[in-house]
Amino acid sequence: MEIKQGTQSFYIGNEENSEAEVHFVRVGEKRIILDHTHVAEHLRGKNVGQQLVKAAVEYAKKEKLKVIPLCPFAKAEFEKNPEYQELVG
Q1: Which bin fits 86, alpha (ψ -120 to 50), beta or left (φ > 0)?
Q2: Nearest CA among 59, 66, 64 for reference residue 22
Q3: Which whole-number Å values give the CA distances from 89 to 28, 35, 82, 86, in the listed order?
Q4: Which of 17, 23, 51, 83 is deepest in the core (most CB within 10 A)?
């Protein structure tokens, strides 16, 4: 499965009607808020959500951004992965 980057999301499928997505909002110049994660029923249990959050984390590292994981799924992923903690802000 190919994870694509949209304007404010990482997704699988197409941007307008994605099968799976982690959505983010930029806050100022240095932060993003992960505010929504969605995975279609047929993709659940395949680590798709984790891969999407990881893509957002890699983007934040590359762009030197801090992340506010507001979405419950993203927040749980940040709690499970200590290496993500350096990006929380």
Answers
A1: alpha
A2: 59
A3: 12, 14, 14, 8
A4: 23
Q: Which helix (H) or strand (E) holds 36?
A: strand 31-39
**Six token digits for residue 65:** 């951004």
Contact 34, 67 (CB under 8 A): yes
- Residue-wise pLDDT for 1-59, tens only, equals 899 999 999 999 988 889 999 999 999 999 999 999 999 999 999 999 999 999 999 99
Prediction pTM value: 0.94
What pLDDT sits at residue 15? 81
Q: How far apart are CA 47 and CA 21, in angstroms?
A: 12
Helix residue spans in the chain (DSSP H):
48-63, 72-80
